[in-house]
């Protein structure tokens, strides 16, 4: 090694255009380790997605890794909360070519931002310790965020928070459990809370929801709907993930009841109890461990009539521990009959090829252009679904 280093130094020392720093870097990488520095990681590759006949899916933006739920600003720009990076980005498409012009960071230094909403001159951001808001005017964020509503702090368990405003201006906040299975001491957990427009008067609107990440109001009926994730450690086929019709004052059973109001056999030494007659069963059962993230109604007019007002759900796909053969992430449309969900229909598939995960869909939003946007928090893409048929 000594002779090699000496020879190398003599060789490069006579080269006038090689700096001493470059010399040291080269010597360190080549002589000490015997190899050149690692090459930069290859950029992510978009999934080859499949949509129904007449529809088209394309990449709207990339480098949005960790992107979760989205919102559309009053001037029609898609905004995304990047949970892992602790920021919020805007994806403007000023030239209307179906691709974001840039990924613009508009807020940073946030703690696990997950959900966004625009309301009366403000951009609201659901973070782990609080709902924040910042002024939004003339198509941009102005100033620094201020705390609007305090929320339970989580260092483990379900730390994501989802927000939304109803037509009257009241704020709804979904707050998941701090665990896989437990009874919570904080009455705000496992609920959808509701607050007055000024942030006051917070109370549980609905209880017994383990982790209702996606929620939205039916544009036709005004009914609030939410998904919910079932717990782990019951096996691969139990319990079902859920879609619930959310009503004021109702309890949806967890942790005392799972599936169709069946007593939770894994809950031992419980302090409390809940009878099946006191709980509201799920309106529809999804595949166990499919991990529903976002639930949104399509509010545009560019899709065929049968899709207008339809409920879409972003299934994140199962984890490696929940199923030996992982279920893929995908976007499904919920089929309704007489106002009740009765089945699912695949809408966007292809996020998994064999055992390879090609993406994990998280957020959904109807754009100002009538397209449906999908955030992929695994590979960092935002996909855009349009209808090209007659």
Main features:
390 residues, mainly beta, four-stranded antiparallel sheet, 2 helices, globular, disordered N terminus
Describe this protein's structure.
The protein is mainly beta and 390 residues long. 6% of the residues lie in helices and 37% in strands. The chain has two helices and 28 strands. A four-stranded antiparallel sheet has the order 1-28-27-26, with no helix packed on it. A hairpin with a 5-residue loop joins strand 27 and strand 28 (382-387).
Q: What does the radius of gyration come to? A: 24 Å
Number of helices: 2
Average pLDDT taken over every residue = 91
Which geometry do the CA atoms define?
globular
The main β sheet shows up as:
4 strands, antiparallel
Residue stretches low in confidence (pLDDT < 50, at least 5 long) are: 1-33
Strand count:
28
